[in-house]
Design goal:
about 260 residues, five-stranded mixed sheet, about 10% strand, alpha+beta, disordered N terminus
Length: about 260
């Protein structure tokens, strides 16, 4: 009864306290929602900024890719004789490129991991940053390199150094062959140098990988193949005639084979 009387007498106070508690609870809830909204807005702003940066990066990369593709097409069309030298010069003006070296050569680089775009671009950048050279990606999954130099030894040395660097730098090329075309002294000779590089690249099966194939070692290798063929024919001829074939001849054949 006493408790009931106390509750009755303090009813208004209790109602006020309940009301205040509800008000405090609502204020806390509102503050929490407001804080969450502020966080969400900050996150949204950060997301928008990051998205903007990514879009800009994509656009810049795309523009650079398009520019590179157009330059590659120009160089390829000239190397294959599809445009003349006047047209070639006119197009090069768009890229602020000039060929003012005394001598040139065109080489073809075949790499095992050509399908990996990141590796491909890394190799191209490495060559253009470290050598007096301009690169293009050919339709035949090759990196075509146009070297410039002051004499034939300089150009040969650049080709040899690239082979050494590809060994050491670990650019992810995998196995590779660098086929060197002949040295020429005018832009008119680009097509002939490229054709010569193409001929040398066809000899890849006759060489161990990770080497430079030049006119000199290509001729040496062709002589070796010719001698190997002669030894083989001589052995076969002796066997057909019932003659003895000495072990020395067989050993010589296999030595030439490797």
């Amino acid at each position: 009864e006493i408790g009931g009387r106390a509750l009755e007498e303090n009813k208004d106070t209790i109602l006020k306290l309940n009301s205040m508690s509800e008000t405090i609870f609502e204020m806390a809830k509102t503050y929490k929602e407001a804080a969450a909204t502020i966080v969400d807005e900050e996150e949204l702003l950060t997301t928008i900024q990051n998205t903007g940066r990514k879009l800009n990066s994509i656009v810049n990369t795309r523009q650079q890719h398009d520019k590179t593709t157009l330059l590659d097409n120009t160089l390829w069309n000239y190397l294959t004789g599809e445009i003349d030298q006047h047209d070639f010069h006119e197009r090069l003006l768009l890229y602020s490129i000039e060929f003012n070296e005394k001598l040139y050569n065109v080489s073809i680089l075949n790499i095992e991991h050509y399908q990996d775009g990141e590796i491909l671009n890394k190799v191209r950048s490495f060559i253009e940053e470290n050598y007096s050279a301009l690169c293009l990606f050919s339709p035949f999954q090759e990196i075509v390199i146009i070297y410039g130099g002051y004499d034939e030894e300089d150009i040969l040395r650049q080709n040899q150094n690239l082979v050494e660097h590809l060994h050491k730098e670990q650019l992810g090329t995998g196995l590779f062959y660098l086929s060197m075309g002949k040295v020429v002294n005018t832009l008119d000779g680009f097509e002939d140098s490229f054709a010569n590089a193409r001929e040398n690249s066809l000899l890849q099966l006759n060489f161990e990988p990770n080497v430079l194939i030049s006119n000199k070692n290509a001729m040496d290798r062709q002589e070796e193949i010719k001698r190997q063929k002669e030894i083989k024919e001589n052995i076969v001829k002796k066997l057909m005639n019932g003659e003895d074939v000495f072990l020395l001849e067989i050993d010589q054949f296999f030595e030439n084979l490797t």
